[in-house]
Write a structure and sequence with these properties.
With 181 residues, this protein is an alpha/beta fold. The protein has a single domain, classed as Spore Coat Polysaccharide Biosynthesis Protein SpsA, Chain A. The protein is built from 6 helices and 9 strands; from the N terminus they run βββαββαβαββααβα. Strand 7 and strand 8 form a beta hairpin. Helix 2 crosses helix 4.
């Protein structure tokens, strides 16, 4: 069941260099990866936003918030999502993690207690749940050209939660997507 106090952010602004075409539009079963991620976020989040590049002109069934930069890095999507979120907790789901479930995201959200700034799985910063109060740390890193989310996490209080690693499969090539089918 969706929690009204969560903003879900689907990150669709990746360069897709290794994939060769926009990952958001790739299909897994009857859905595109973007539709799948959007649906998953809807299972747990009261508010959903998609963040990406307006210039990509992705034909998606929902609007995309422009991240307002030419930089192609996950941190850009995280910053734009935290700026746009109306709730303190923001669930970040990259479009290329199609097996993540609403339950897994809910586990991360529950682990993001008031004493921590973020909750992430054992594999790293995405998917993850971030508090909007951490926005200045991300903005400072982005302004300094430090684009690695892992480095930014070193400045935050983070809960690392063990999730089923099969759910965290990341799709970086058409071959990897084919294996998931």
């Amino acid at each position: 069941m969706a929690r009204r106090d969560l903003t879900g952010a689907l990150l669709v602004g990746g360069a897709s260099n290794r994939f060769g075409s926009p990952k958001a539009l790739a299909r897994l079963g009857e859905e595109t990866l973007a539709e799948r991620g959007w649906r998953t976020l809807g299972e747990i989040c009261g508010e959903r936003i998609a963040v990406g590049k307006a210039g990509d002109r992705l034909e998606l069934p929902f609007p995309v918030v422009d991240d307002a930069t030419d930089v192609r890095a996950s941190i850009v999507g995280v910053v734009a999502a935290l700026r746009t979120a109306t709730h303190e907790l923001c669930v970040m789901l990259p479009v290329d993690c199609p097996l993540v479930t609403g339950d897994a995201l809910g586990t991360l959200a529950c682990a993001c207690g008031e004493e921590v700034d973020a909750a992430v799985p054992q594999t790293g910063p995405l998917p993850g749940v971030y508090r909007t109060r951490s926005l200045p740390v991300f903005e400072t890193a982005l302004e300094a050209g430090r684009l690695a989310l892992r480095e930014v996490l070193e400045s935050l209080r983070v809960a690392v939660i063990e999730l089923d690693s099969a759910l965290l499969a990341n799709v970086n090539s058409p071959e990897e997507l084919q294996r998931l089918r």
